[in-house]
Specification:
By secondary structure, this protein is an alpha/beta fold. Helix content is about 50%, strand content about 15%. The longest helix has 18 residues. The chain binds guanosine-5'-triphosphate and magnesium ion. Magnesium ion binds next to helix 1.
Length: about 250
């Protein structure tokens, strides 16, 4: 059985840290060994107890002071500094030998998806055993164009990181049932989504292209708060790495 690394990626405030916690708790209840890694040096608070935390090395605040830059500059510097931690992270993983390594990525998703250092880190930890959970923000996803923007962001993360993706509708508990249903249907039924978008826009053509390229993925509704959807994430991982084989037999 191979170790699996799960990166939680999504826009600021989309629920990455809480989902890291909820999925970790769920895996633990299934008796899996895991590590939780916080890669966000700007986090004031993380809701889980991190087994490895970038803030042990530096925080955004430290960097702002040391380099005399504002928060955005500090984000970029801290992202570049991540590569200096690779050996330490690898050492800790080798020591603990967990089944799952859950990685909570920095608040601003572009810091993680667009900077070269993340790709170097991902490569060093093992691309072939990596998967990302991409969180669609529930409020942004409520409107058709908001949903589309999230879809493009999700795909930009795939283009950049080049690892498989499980797309989830985060914090689904904040939406009404009919809203959840509609968003899930947008993600699986191109014609239905098109009917919400004015025709003659580029978007409809773009959607077809995305669909033809296999970049249109059905969303899974999850709630870290209520704890649902964890098994779906797990099943998605299972599908990617074991082609539908019953992972429970392999793992637990
Ligand atoms: N209702 C509800 N609220 C949630 C859920 N998950 C997270 N939240 C809330 O949403 C806010 C942001 O959640 P985080 O997990 O910190 O989001 P994040 O993507 O890690 O945020 P940054 O790292 O700051 O960008 C917090 O105030 C949480 O309490 C959920 O499943 N349901
Ligand atoms: Mg966070």
């Amino acid at each position: 059985m191979k170790q699996i690394i799960v990166y939680f990626v999504g826009i600021a405030g989309s629920g990455k840290s809480y989902l890291t916690k909820a999925f970790a708790d769920w895996l633990e209840s299934m008796k899996a060994d895991l590590m939780r890694i916080n890669l966000d040096p700007g986090a004031d608070y993380v809701p889980y107890s991190a087994d490895l935390d970038v803030r042990e090395w530096f925080t955004l605040e430290d960097i702002m002071q040391k380099y005399n830059v504002g928060p955005n500059g500090a984000q970029i510097i801290s992202s570049d500094l991540l590569v200096t931690l690779i050996d330490d992270i690898r050492y800790e993983i080798d020591l603990a030998q967990p089944d799952f390594i859950l990685i909570d990525t920095p608040g601003q998703m572009e810091i993680f998806t667009l900077r070269e250092s993340s790709k170097i880190l991902l490569e060093a930890l093992g691309r072939e055993r990596s998967v990302m959970v991409f969180l669609f923000d529930p409020v942004v996803s409520k409107t058709p164009f908001g949903f589309l923007s999230q879809l493009f962001m999700a795909n930009s993360a795939v283009f950049r990181l080049e690892i498989p993706q499980i797309a989830v509708l985060s914090k689904a508990d904040v939406l009404r049932d009919d809203e959840v249903e509609r968003i899930l249907r947008w993600s699986s039924d191109l014609e239905y989504l098109s009917s919400f978008i004015e025709t003659k826009t580029l978007s409809v053509e773009l959607l077809r292209t995305l669909k033809d390229s296999g970049l249109f993925r059905p969303l899974v509704a999850v709630s870290a708060l209520k704890g649902y959807g964890m098994e779906d994430i797990y099943d998605g991982i299972q599908e990617y790495f074991y082609g539908g084989e019953d992972l429970e037999r392999v793992l637990f």
